[in-house]
Amino acid sequence: MRMHGRMQIARAIPPRFHVFACVMFLFLLVPAITRAQVSEVVTVTTKRTVDIGLMYNGDYIYFFGNIPDASADVIVRLTSTGDAPMTVTRKGKVAFFWMNVKQFTVTGLPLLYKIHSTRPIRQILDPALAKELGIGYDVLKEQMKLELVRGESQPDDRDIVFDGVLKLKQDAILYNIDEQRIEVTGGAIFKHYFRFPSAAKEGTYRAESYVIQNGKLVGKGVDEIVIRKSGIEAAFTRMAGEQPVLYGFVAVVVALGMGLLVGFIFKKGGGH
User: Which of 166, 173, 224 is nearest to 59 (CA)?
Assistant: First the structure.
């Protein structure tokens, strides 16, 4: 995965200090956790809130966690907590032309779905545990609800629609499975980062860390990341909900202003 943009970490504290503090915090907790043999995975992250402004272009957030045994594997699933309904069309040949012949409403799929692991998931989990934990695209396909709005149903509708939605999500960097992303340091600390793309909307996102040993779940930790609008973006959102008439008027004025500005720029440059 290529990295675009830069991490937006608080200016008051250098980014390296965040990472160092996270690692030191976890190393101090490792002995106590190992002795107590608890199932909770202690995790920390470099950021728990992401502000969306006019210049927002995505963000990178690092995650760190403890594992009780160096032989254990780690799988982390990042998902949005809300559903993301979609309208999907399927093309078909009518006479000599390709046209939209069917329309579906798709629900039951998260807006964002990313999986990181220490090695290939099939080598870590059996299908039953993978389904229980919600790991893998096959699990998502089973969760997807498909409603035919227009056209006639066909046996391969579910496969075709899911593959199309998956391609759209992957292109928007909203869906991704990386089976070599997580690194384990000193046999006790795992680390990795998730990219939150610009297409990630407002809401709460959950990063669930699973520690697997000998095919069994032995530990779990949860982190929540909140994405929220800020500045003028937040002001316009509040206006749209609380004062829709004023919002519509302002939107028209802004659109006209932008149109005049673009026309002026092209007119000014047209004589050269």
Answer: 173
**What is the residue-level pLDDT of the chain in tens, covering all 272 positions?**
444 443 343 344 455 555 555 555 554 544 444 433 437 888 999 999 988 877 788 899 999 998 888 889 999 999 999 888 899 888 776 666 677 778 999 999 999 999 999 999 999 999 999 999 999 999 999 999 999 998 888 899 999 999 999 999 999 999 999 998 999 988 789 999 999 998 988 899 999 999 999 999 999 999 999 998 765 554 545 555 565 665 565 556 656 766 666 666 666 555 44
Contact between residue 82 and residue 108 where contact means Cβ atoms under 8 Å apart = no
The amino acid present at 216, given as its one-letter code, is K
Residues in a beta bridge with 64: 44, 191
Q: Residue 198 is encoded by which pair of tokens? A: 């610009």
Label each residue of 160-184 as H, E or C: HHHHHHHHHHHHCCCEEEECCCCEE
DSSP 3-state of 255: helix
Which amino acid appears at position 51 of this protein? D
- Helices 231-242 + 244-269 axis angle, to 10: 130
Whole-prediction pTM: 0.72
**What's the CA gap between 159 and 263, in Å, rounded?**
47
